[in-house]
TrEMBL record:
Lineage of the species this protein comes from: Bacteria, Candidatus Wildermuthiibacteriota
Domain Nitroreductase intervals: 3-31
Spans traversing the lipid bilayer: none
Superkingdom of the source species: Bacteria
One term of GO molecular function: oxidoreductase activity
UniProt-recorded name of the protein: Nitroreductase domain-containing protein
């Protein structure tokens, strides 16, 4: 069966507004008749922050979920096979479209509106109905588990555990370099590149932006590190992370394909939050550093940082009472003003075969 090419093009253009590490958009597509081949480009994500390409798989999960949702609105049933061919590890999915009368997914209209919001959120909880509706949106993925807390003290602890990412990143020369390489400093630069971490989306005050510019030189950063400056930044961010209505975590089995499912579930939560006019922020550094250390691939950390990372990860598992699997990602959700800026996306690369 041949599907309208224009429909597929539109579906992929809409779906490509998926989140990805530092807006790397590590994907391209091949389309043959009614089949969409979703291909990962993990080299666009940095290995230290992307243990076993699992950050790429999370982004692909979100992308694939968007394709499924968008297809339903174009009147197609989408059958997804994830990692269909072991000999092609970067082929994350083959999605077969069939004409049918699927129920159009109401999350479709908010795919283009989904965005990261790194602002401070309001100190206001969700109603029970809101909370249920939010969490139910991702309940169909049985292989993963979502835990959510509204408790203020628990959120404070998790905020602290997530913010050690900043300490480790700014005190380690290699990570410092990587972080600053990903920052896009101005709107003109961003509108050309359409990838990277656009400064304005970081939600810093003008004096903080000026300090960040100074810190891009490792020599200057080192001086500031003598004053334990990274710790001061982390403390500030920890408060921000703990702000809002609640924090959640997605727990997976220690299998690569489950990170893709975590991405699918996360995207549904994010879109649901967007539909409910809530803000959403994904925070993952602590979890990726920890996985790297466990598997001895990330021998770039000092002994002191390894201890900080282990303690932080243990705190997360303790607070959420995790006794199996791996914490794949954490997020916060809540009411907030609109983000100050959005990240641009590239048009998807589609190869028609
Ligand atoms: C695997 C993964 C990890 C991410 N980790 C973080 C993070 O630790 N902190 C953060 O602020 N954003 C994080 N993000 C969000 C991306 O930076 C964001 O999606 C990207 O810059 C595009 O912006 P958008 O979400 O507004 O479209 C992550 C996204 C993905 C897919």
């Amino acid at each position: 069966m041949v599907i309208n090419k224009e429909d597929i093009k539109k579906i992929l253009e809409i779906a490509a507004n998926a989140p990805s590490g530092s807006n790397s958009q590590p994907w391209k597509f091949k389309v043959k008749d009614n089949q969409i081949y979703v291909i990962a480009l993990p080299e666009k994500d940095h290995p230290i922050l992307n243990y076993r390409n699992r950050g790429t798989w999370i982004a692909h999960g979100a992308l694939i979920e968007n394709i499924v949702i968008a297809s339903s609105s174009f009147g197609y049933e989408a059958k997804v096979k994830i990692f269909p061919d072991l000999s092609q590890p970067n082929l994350t999915a083959v999605i077969e479209l069939a004409l049918g009368l699927p129920k159009s997914d109401s999350l479709f209209s908010v795919i283009p509106l989904r965005a990261t919001n790194r602002k401070q959120y309001e100190d206001r909880l969700l109603s029970d109905v809101q909370k249920q509706e939010f969490l139910k949106s991702a309940s169909s993925f049985k292989e993963i588990e979502i835990k959510f807390t509204e408790d203020k003290e628990q959120r404070r602890l998790i905020g602290e555990a997530l913010s050690i990412n900043e300490v480790v990143t700014l005190e380690n020369e290699k990570l410092h370099k990587l972080f600053f390489e990903e920052i896009v400093w101005s709107r003109p630069e961003e509108s050309i590149k359409k990838s990277g971490l656009y400064l304005k989306t970081m939600e810093l005050e003008p004096p903080q932006q000026a300090v960040l510019k100074l810190l891009r030189r490792w020599r200057v950063m080192k001086l500031f590190n003598h004053l334990k400056f990274a710790g001061i930044i982390a403390k500030d961010n920890a408060k921000r992370y703990a702000s809002g209505a609640g924090m959640g975590i997605i727990i997976v089995n220690d299998r690569d394909e489950d990170f893709l499912l975590a991405g699918r579930a996360m995207e549904r939560l994010w879109l649901k939050a967007t539909q409910m006019r809530l803000s959403f922020h994904l925070i993952t550094g602590t979890m990726f550093f920890w996985q790297g250390i466990q598997n001895d691939t990330a021998n770039i950390f000092s002994k002191e940082h390894i201890e900080i990372i282990n303690n932080a990860y243990n705190k997360i598992t303790e607070v959420f009472n995790i006794n199996r699997g791996v914490a794949a990602l954490a997020f916060r959700v809540g009411l907030s003003k609109e983000p100050s800026a959005l990240s641009s996306k590239k048009p998807p690369e589609i190869i028609w075969v």
